[in-house]
């Protein structure tokens, strides 16, 4: 399928996915599943735009490679930063961060919630 | 005006491929520009998940969703403009590009209304943050710093895109493009789709989760 019909079908699919992600945000899936579902739908929408509106479906290899490599480096950057923050010992993190409880086990004397040093920091 | 073959290319198809490759390389740098902000978002969301959830509730999901639809539809008209330019219907392509520019204008208008609400509620970046409801939550001002940085940089790209589409749209309206000469429509379209692409990720990350 080529031409305007293909574009209109992609557009309808994008609108449907937008409706889906809006609807899913109203449902509490528990844990991080809301985020996972929202990002999966966003990735599906992005793929439709890239493959059909931006013609990577019909493109030559080099153009695809450029785009895939740029996405790879974005993921590498994010993975590096989050991996760093997740594996730091607790005092090296912002004192009020709530997202890391249950992460790496704090060593003796380093526990930010009970350490006497940390009381002074706060 | 005919697409001319530069002397250092063997065939017109090679030249077109090089033109597309150049645009994709530029788009890759744009992706990496936004990647810094997405990375910052990921980091602070990782540190303050509860606050980000609360702060996200202060954004207007309805307006965000309308803006998503507006931008997706403007991508459709840009894609159709390229299609009709290839068929030699340059004037129609120009009209479709002008429709896309109007959609971009609508997007910015809605964004301005949203920004107005945030100003009134004191949901501002960094030390200008003075919202009482969220005041005590650690990381709340960081959410709005990231909100204004990401949507601001994105809105700036929308403006540039509108400028480019107006220029190419005017050339299309004068009948410049035909079967063998559509590259400006195609490449400016790629830029507009990238702007759409960034919003596709900003919308769920800021408004929905």
What does this structure look like?
The complex is a heterodimer of chains A (122) and B (209). Chain A is mainly α. Chain A has two domains: 56 residues; 51 residues, no CATH class. Chain A is built from four helices and no strands. In chain A, helix 1 runs antiparallel to helix 2. Chain A is flat, with a radius of gyration of 22 Å. Chain B is mainly alpha-helical and 209 residues long. Chain B has one domain: Cytochrome c oxidase, subunit III, four-helix bundle (Four Helix Bundle (Hemerythrin (Met), subunit A)), CATH 1.20.120.80. Chain B is built from six helices and no strands. The radius of gyration of chain B is 20 Å and the shape is elongated. At the A-B interface, helix 1, helix 2 and helix 3 of A face helix 1, helix 2, helix 3 and helix 6 of B.
């Amino acid at each position: 399928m080529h031409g305007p019909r293909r574009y209109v079908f992609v557009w309808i699919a994008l609108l449907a996915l937008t409706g889906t992600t809006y609807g899913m945000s109203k449902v509490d899936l528990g844990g991080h599943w809301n985020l996972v579902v929202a990002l999966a739908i966003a990735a599906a929408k992005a793929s439709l735009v890239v493959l059909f509106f931006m013609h990577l479906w019909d493109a030559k290899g080099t153009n695809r490679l450029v785009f895939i490599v740029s996405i790879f480096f974005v993921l590498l950057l994010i993975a590096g930063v989050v991996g760093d923050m997740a594996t730091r010992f607790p005092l090296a993190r912002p004192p009020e961060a709530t997202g890391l409880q249950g992460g790496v086990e704090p060593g003796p004397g380093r526990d930010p919630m009970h350490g006497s040093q940390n009381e002074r920091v706060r | 005006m005919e697409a001319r073959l530069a002397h250092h290319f063997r065939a017109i198809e090679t030249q077109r491929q090089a033109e597309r490759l150049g645009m994709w390389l530029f788009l890759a740098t744009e992706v990496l520009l936004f990647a810094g902000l997405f990375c910052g978002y990921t980091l602070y969301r990782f540190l303050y998940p509860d606050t980000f959830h609360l702060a996200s509730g202060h954004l207007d999901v309805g307006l965000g969703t309308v803006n998503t639809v507006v931008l997706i539809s403007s991508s459709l008209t840009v894609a159709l403009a390229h299609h009709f330019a290839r068929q030699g219907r340059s004037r129609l392509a120009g009209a479709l590009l002008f429709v896309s520019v109007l959609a971009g204008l609508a997007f910015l208008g809605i964004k301005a209304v949203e920004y107005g609400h945030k100003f009134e509620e004191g949901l501002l970046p960094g030390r200008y943050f003075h919202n009482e409801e969220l005041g005590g939550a650690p990381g709340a001002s960081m959410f709005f710093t990231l909100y204004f940085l990401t949507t601001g940089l994105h809105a700036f790209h929308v403006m540039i895109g509108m400028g480019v589409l107006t220029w190419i749209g005017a050339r299309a309206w004068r009948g410049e493009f035909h079967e063998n000469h559509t590259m400006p429509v195609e490449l400016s379209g790629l830029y507009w789709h990238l702007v759409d692409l960034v919003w596709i990720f900003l919308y769920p990350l800021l408004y929905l989760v």
